[in-house]
Amino acid sequence: WFFITLSLESSIIPITDLMMEQRLYLPLFGFSLAISMALFVVLKENMVRFMAIIILISIILGVTTYQRNFDWKTNQSIWLKCLEETPNNTRALVYVGRSMAVQDPHQALNYFNQSIAVDSNYYHGWFNRGLIYYDKRNYDEALDNFNRALSIEGLHHDYIYYLMGASYLYKKEYGDAISYLDQYINKNPNDPKAFMFRGEAHYFKGNYLETASDFKSSLNLDASTINLYLNLVEVYYKLGDKEQMRYHIEIAKQKGLTVPVTYTDFIQE
Questions:
Q1: 3-state DSSP assignment of residue 102
Q2: What is the pLDDT of residues 181-217, one digit of tens each?
Q3: How many CA within 13 A on the CB side of residue 110?
Q4: What DSSP string describes 247-260?
Q5: Which of 23, 192, 236, 259 has the largest CB neighbor count within 10 A?
Q6: For residues 245 and 237, what is the distance between their CA atoms, to the nearest angstrom?
Q7: Does the predicted model carry a pTM greater than 0.85?
Q8: What residues contact residue 43 under an 8 Å CB cut-off, 6+ apart?
Q9: Contact present, 170 and 177 (Cβ < 8 Å)
């Protein structure tokens, strides 16, 4: 029972994780049943001793289960426990880093560095280290890490294209920003911020019609970014389209926004 069911849970094909306790749930059922039956056969003439042993086993397992709950208390605690057992586990190093990324990004970066040192072809190590640099607004380092992640064969997060597009936007490299945001939007057409960022890149490239289209798409997905109405007024000002300016000025005023005099004077000329 144990080995047959374990072959179903883990198979004979090598896997990344050395040990995973949940893979033993089904195999241990047969093992526990066999141990209980063996104890019963041996001690059936002395049920007091049999029950005492069963109770003792139950207490020991109960205590160890209770103690194990502390390991599972948080994402960080379970992955730190994993690192105690396998210090060079790249997956554990990354997940510990991710659990620290918000509160202690410097310490998180150390874990990502360790992960990459163990395996320089581990996608998640490069990706998550890039996220740290992105949050620090160190876009050159972020892009270096994202590019290393993309160079690794296998599945990639679509989100990496968004992050790269945003990084290039902040670096004022608008052509590259548009290219990566195109790739992200093609796979994630319901992200309003991606349209807004691509619209900004188009604006600085002088592609005003594309800018207007992206800003409108962003507003259709999330109308709460009301400053985009003023941005649209600016775009149509650049295009000299007074009709569209009037339309968006009216919406901007309804949203409680202050419209610069330059625009209101222009549409009255």
A1: coil
A2: 999 999 999 999 999 999 999 999 999 999 999 999 9
A3: 4
A4: HHHHHHHHTTPPPP
A5: 236
A6: 7
A7: no
A8: 49, 50, 53
A9: no
